[in-house]
Amino acid sequence: MNKRKTLTVFTPTYNRIKTIKRTYKSLCEQTNTDVDWLIIDDGSFDGCRNWVFSLGEIVDRDGTVFDWMGRPLCEKSENHFVVQAGFLRIEYIYKPNGGLYTGYNVAFSVIQSELCVCIDSDDYLPSNAVEIITKKWQELSVNQRQQIGGIAGLDYNVVDKSPIGGVFKIKSPIAFVQDMGHIGDCKFVFRTDAIRRFAPQIGFEGEKDFNPHFMQMQLFDEYPMLVINENLCWVEYQYGNDSMSQAIFKQYLRSPKSFAKYRLQELALKRGNSFLKKIRLSAHYVSSCIFSKDRDWLKNSNSRILTIISIPFGAFLCLYIKAKAISQY
Predict the structure, then answer these.
(1) 7-242 — its CATH code?
(2) Whole-structure pTM over 0.90, yes or no?
(3) Backbone conformation region of residue 183, classed left if phi is above 0, alpha if psi is from -120 to 50, else beta
């Protein structure tokens, strides 16, 4: 029986067969092999399954079936299997298309390793990433590990070879994310049993743009992270229709219930919420409720007075979002 690895890299993917091959190559080139790879295929039709199937020896077939939300069903399928490719154990799970967060739901339900990290299918690992993560983790005592939510490291931009948002400027290696003052993407390695406390993420039928950060920010509100100024991921931003960030205004219109729920969760956090930030979040909540035509918007609010104050800002935000969304088409 194979020894359980310390780290699982999980990769939700949707029609990224060209770029996910680079992710695979980076895993094969790791200086430390204490890692498994989990691929959650969110309804791709680009041949991803057959490619994974060809990577090595099939060691496990007919795994659990998951629905569009990432919920396990009482069925087995040949679209859930395990391949052994050299040292790398690759678990592949195909599910109906439901959006990025549903892939996270699957990951947090099946991962058995102590740590897990998402590496997107258009990104890849530096060759020493697994070595850095496992070494930093093993330097901690068991008690120290239980006190934190995981490790926060840097994302580096493929284009300019520099850390996105710069390096962390911290006084202590253990810090809450809200206190780090970092603007820009970074890489979070989660203690699996900690992040699982906040999973699975709820969802709304027909809305695929719910950000999985919904789960992560709940963890950040309760646990500090071990912060390291090390490159854990090479990031290549996608543009046009493939870009999540560029399509944000369309997402506001496509998934208003999801964004309303997201704003309510942000407002409920104990850390990092100034009064001005709460006004901004409340305005976003109001605009999302207008888009979703939610009649219970005020009853569902966790601060009715603040929500009422934010109504004019939310109405103006609606007009702004519509104008920006139109310009994106």
Answers:
(1) 3.90.550.10
(2) yes
(3) beta
